[in-house]
Amino acid sequence: MLRRFAAAITDVADSIIGADVSTPFADSEAALPGTEFAHGTAGEYEVSEADFTGMLHAMDVPA
């Protein structure tokens, strides 16, 4: 069972290894001036678990 799990994880890793996920975020980081999104990684934005749960609750997403 663990070998099948490891193989599945390896397959996923192999399929996404070339995906560029940071450039689109960096390109759009300043898209919403004055918002937390605009300051995201540049401001080392951190969300506490309580804040994150509150945000999910505000969007009617089960936490």
Task: Outline the structure in words.
There is one protein chain. The chain has 63 residues and is mainly α. It has one domain. Helices cover 57% and strands 0% of the residues. It contains four helices and no strands. The protein has helices at 2-16, 22-28, 36-39, 49-58. The mean pLDDT is 77.
A few lines on this structure:
The protein is an all-alpha fold and 63 residues long. Helices cover 57% and strands 0% of the residues.
Radius of gyration: 17 Å
Quaternary structure classification: single chain
Contiguous runs where pLDDT drops below 50 for at least 5 residues? none
- Portion of residues within helices: 55-70%
| Helix-and-strand structural type | mainly alpha
Q: Helix count, per DSSP?
A: 4
Order of helices and strands: HHHH
Give the overall shape, derived from the CA principal axes.
flat
- Count of individual beta strands: 0
Most strands sheet: none
